Every structure is written in C-alpha cells, then in structure tokens.
Amino acid sequence: MKQLRKSNDPIKRVLLWNRLEIGVSHEPGDKRHGHVLTAGYGHIRGSYGDPDPVSGEVGDGMAIDVWIGADLGSPKVFRVKQIRPETGEFDEWKYVIGCWSQEEAKQLYLACMPKRFFAGVESVDPAVFIDILPRLKAWDSKGSSRDCRHRLSNIP
Predict the structure, then answer these.
(1) What's the pLDDT tens digit per position in 90-117?
(2) 8 within a domain of the structure (yes/no)
(3) Domain assignment of residue 20, given as a range
(4) How many structural domains are present in the chain?
(5) Residues 32-49 pLDDT 10s
(6) Which end of the chain is more exposed for a tag (fewer CB within 10 A), N or C?
(7) Dist CA 22 CA 43 (whole Å)
C-alpha cells in the first residue's frame, strides 16, 4: 500500500471554489516539468489520492490534483485519467475545474501536459464532488483517511 503524503509543491495561495479550498502551487505562465502552464494547478487541501472505483487502480497517494481553468463560474468538474507513458498503466486522476465541457477540460490538460500521459476525460457529478470533499478534513482529523479515500473513490 502506498504511503499517503501531501503535495511536494509549495502553495502560493489558497483558492476557494464552491466551498473547496484549493492550494494553488502553479499559476498560468509558471513552468512545471519543463512546460509553461496555460492553466493553474494545485490540490484539494486535506485530500489524498483516490483509487479507481472500477479497477481499483491506485494513484500516487498524494493530495488530489486539480487543474484550474479560466472560468471559475463553471460548476462542472471533470477528471482526467493520467497514465505512465512507459507502460500505459494507470498513474493517477487529475481533476479539472473552471471548464464548461469535457472537450475544454481535455484541451486544458493537453495544453499543460504531453499527450502521452492522457488516457481520457470524464464528467464528475459536481454536487457529489463538492459535498464529499469538505468532509475529508473532518475524516482525516479523526484518523480515518482510509475511509476518506474509499468514499472519494465512489464519486460517480
């Protein structure tokens, strides 16, 4: 089992989006892994990586990553399946906010990451996403982060 750990990237600011605290570590224009970002990037504060609900594939064990699009008025949430290009195996989920469509979320991801890491994008029910994540801090403070990961993995 992978050890749970927080993001290695220092937080520059905290963005509040639909009651979720997002630790923004990279702004548009920043360099990350040799690429100039066209979107913000950070993680949901108080969260941990989630396994795929169908296959049980486990992510990196770090805080849940979020790409931040330009229109934070959009209530929609998408998740990108990221793979390890060397093997084609699942790496982790990357969530996308600030976009209105799957295609827009896909283009945001591909503008910031090489295509070889991309394995698809899907819509996530924003009500479930927004309602479940604030509970992570409460669950984690009670020593039940395993329960947090299980509940998060069941987001439709």
Answers:
(1) 888 899 999 999 999 999 999 999 999 9
(2) no
(3) 13-153
(4) 1
(5) 878 899 999 998 887 765
(6) N
(7) 5
